[in-house]
Amino acid sequence: MSKLTRRLLLEGAGSLAAAGLVGASGLTEWARAWAQSAQWKPEKGAQLTLLRWKRFIQAEEDAFTELVANFTKATGVKVTVINESLDDVQPKASVAAATGSGPDLFWGLYSLPHLFPEKCVDVTDVADYLGKKYDGWVPSAIAYGKSGNRWIDIPVAYNGNVMNYRKASMEKAGFKAFPKTTDEFLAFAKAMKAQNTPGGLALGHASGDGNAWVHWCLWAFGGNVVDAKDKVVINSPETAKALEYAKQLFDTFIPGTASWNDSSNNKAFLAGDIHWTANGVSIYATAKSQKADMAADIEHALWPIGPAGKPTEFHVAYPIMIMKYSKFPQASKAFIAFMMEAANLDPWVEKSVGYLTPGLIAYEKNPIWSADPKLTVCRDVAKRTLTAGGLGSVGEKAAAALADFVVLDMFANYCTGREDVKGAIAAAERQAKRIYRTS
Amino acid sequence: MADVALEARTGRAPVRETTSWDRLKVNRDWLGFWFMLPAMAFLILFLAYPLGLGIWISFTDAKIGRVGDFVGLENYEWLSDDSIFWLSVTNTLLYTAIASVFKFAVGLYLALLLNENLPFKAMLRAMVLIPFIVPTVLSALAFWWIFDAQFSIISWSLKQLGLITQNINFLGDANWARASVIFANIWRGVPFVAITLLAGLQTVQPSLYEAATIDGATKWQMFRHITYPLLTPIIAVVMTFSVLFTFTDFQLIWAMTRGGPVNATHLMATLSYQRAIIAGQLGEGAAISSAMIPFLLAAIMVSWFGLQRRKWQQGESND
User: Fold this and answer.
1) Which ipTM did the prediction report?
2) Nearest CA in chain A to B257
3) Exposed end of chain B (fewer CB within 10 Å): N or C?
4) Chain A within 8 Å of B177 (Cβ-Cβ)?
5) Helix H segments across chain B?
6) Which of A94-103, A132-141, A362-371, B250-259 has the highest mean pLDDT?
């Protein structure tokens, strides 16, 4: 742990308000000092453009904007931030990579940099610097960050996709704590439906929530799209078991989840139509500002563990990358390093009320995780998450399979009764084999 | 004198053989070509080149950010055996056929109504255009709310009336979802058909109706034997456009269902986008969009040859 973080924690004394005060006065001076000593010196006249996913929590964006302003004050480098909705970041980055012009930095999803690893600036020096200073990276961050021997992006943070539930309804259904195993979980879902407080998980083309739960389910039963050598192994008894389980779970859902996108469960939960779902903590954050009663009743839990015997969660990763065509790679590196320093990242994570979980181990000590017990589970998502592609590589193939909804469509095909187990698996296998073909 | 002789000689020198280039520059037959050149350059640059490039990419295994190698018909072979692709073709044909028929019927009906002497005629005509003016994405979002699984106004109203007990699964059930997106497309497309046909109706000479009235023709006969034949060329044009727009529709589907549930509303355009841009399989996506070309050509041919026929242009029995 660095001196700096300790000092910040002392000054902040665990209080969010105090941390805010530090941000207003001391931080600018700190930022200047940082810029003086940093190993990356921005190019003369450097100006950066950064394209990021559009925030889900206003306070998170405010904190980020402040961070950017501090960077500009300290280094004189102007940073223009463009916000795009989550689903649009990848197409825009892809087009920029193909045409060789566009924003200097892209902050996107999962394995986005691995779609075009040769178009990303090598950021091994930044990753090493941060890793050394902040107790190292969690395993999934290394998987997301590295392509071969070099780091092609910095996995800034994860967005924990955790179970959201209403405590009172759960207790009414006879459960003292949230289920820890898949069997208990199914019983829980059935009981919740029986007392007319059902839940639901997205089966539409929801790139975040949909992919999160079907991959959890597939992995929980030991199924996998590919093995460690990227050989397609989806056609297995384990996959069939996962599908059977999902179907039983699906039967307890509120009707209509086959059409759900990423925002549908947020709306349904806040309207009181569903009493459990899987989502980021944004439902809780919204409830806190709009429905205090409901917020008090909302709890979060980690995903149940299946026959595979280990956590099989799939959380959203947010990596940031520098494009090779950028004229200001040093300024970009300086910005990323600056952003990940405790003095900036700690308050940012706090303001985002648990929505962001950094991939650097030292950040587990951020007071936000203990300040609000409802958010504690999010502390561990970076450590627990598996990566896109499962056992296989975190490359463009894994990204393509995710983007083409191979696993999600397999589950949706079977759950909605359009295909039997064999047909659903066969369709997914065919698609996966095509994506993972070696040529 | 010597000077004069010299001058005469140099003065003659420019009179050289007229080259074919000189002729082309002033040739009246070529003049048209020169005037067309800018437009042609424009068309080649912005239409022919992208189209050609798209077809070329469909024969490669290009991915986003990487130029692919030529793989021949591999992408098409793969698609020929891909159930999702064929589902999208079926969906596109179904979507186009049903939406076009309804758009034509409702559009013609509206045009005939608006052609009558109604109070507030100008205002009514302007109002009909509203669905066409609203940006597609906005109207798609509005429809998305209207058809939402939990918050649908239709489900809510029917529930309040006691007609149903559970929300209708508009976008979650394959057939409901298809019906919903087709309905949204019809709503959006009707004004274009209606206003264009209305313009056509206005060109029909009133004297024809007067003559028919004197002959004792009924309203239906007047429509069948005067309005309809004279409107045919316009109908051919407007329906060609309408079919082309519908066939290549993207925004409505993308904003409402993303091709879901389970690909039940994927059109060729949306599937192409999903595979090419989102999943990065540029070659395969290009193959899907290139596969749309034969269908689009067929639609254009129908109206092209139709328009050549004098029967279509001048009414029947005048071949």
Assistant:
1) 0.72
2) A259
3) N
4) yes
5) 2-12, 20-26, 28-43, 49-57, 74-80, 83-115, 121-128, 130-133, 136-146, 153-160, 174-202, 206-214, 219-222, 228-247, 251-256, 268-273, 282-290, 292-308, 310-314
6) A132-141
